[in-house]
Write a structure and sequence with these properties.
151 residues, single chain, flat, mainly beta, four-stranded mixed sheet, 10 strands, Immunoglobulin-like, four-stranded antiparallel sheet
Length: 151
């Protein structure tokens, strides 16, 4: 499509010397949708080095699996492109917060474990882009229920 006459601007169309502000009749909607999807695919295929704005990284959600057995909870996190020193992990009795920032990647996620753990009992390893954290389960997992009086 030749855009030298300004006809590619979807809000204006040259019509016998006058500019009309209309999108109707300018593009076939299938053609317009194809153009949009091609552009989006090109953006999604761009590598992190082909950033649209230099100096900024995109925050990503890492892939996470939580596995529980009788005495331990294992959290496996896939975070390629960062070094072990770039990883920051914080744990409470029911959640783990994982943050990591490398040269061109940034990850951040808060994981609900679905059970109580002992936060100080952790063992963490990072190898080939995969972080594995193992916590001991808290034996006192029963929540204390309190009666609520209705007035």
């Amino acid at each position: 499509m030749d855009c030298s006459d300004g006809s590619c601007n979807p809000w204006r169309r040259k019509n016998s010397g006058d500019w009309n502000y209309s999108i109707a009749g300018l593009f076939d909607f299938e053609e317009l949708a194809d153009m949009i999807f091609r552009d989006m695919e090109e953006l999604m295929r761009a590598s992190p080095q082909d950033t649209l704005v230099r100096g900024f990284t995109i925050e990503r959600k890492p892939l996470i699996d939580v596995m529980k057995d009788d005495d331990a909870v294992t959290v496996i996190v896939e975070m390629s492109g960062v070094e072990k020193e770039d990883i920051d992990i914080k744990a409470s009795e029911t959640h783990v917060e994982i943050n990591a920032e490398g040269e061109d990647r940034k990850y951040s996620e808060k994981v609900d474990l679905g059970c109580k753990i002992i936060p100080d009992s952790h063992k963490a390893r990072y190898n080939n882009g995969v972080l594995e954290i193992v916590f001991k389960r808290n034996e006192d997992e029963e929540e204390e229920m309190k009666k609520v009086n209705v007035e």
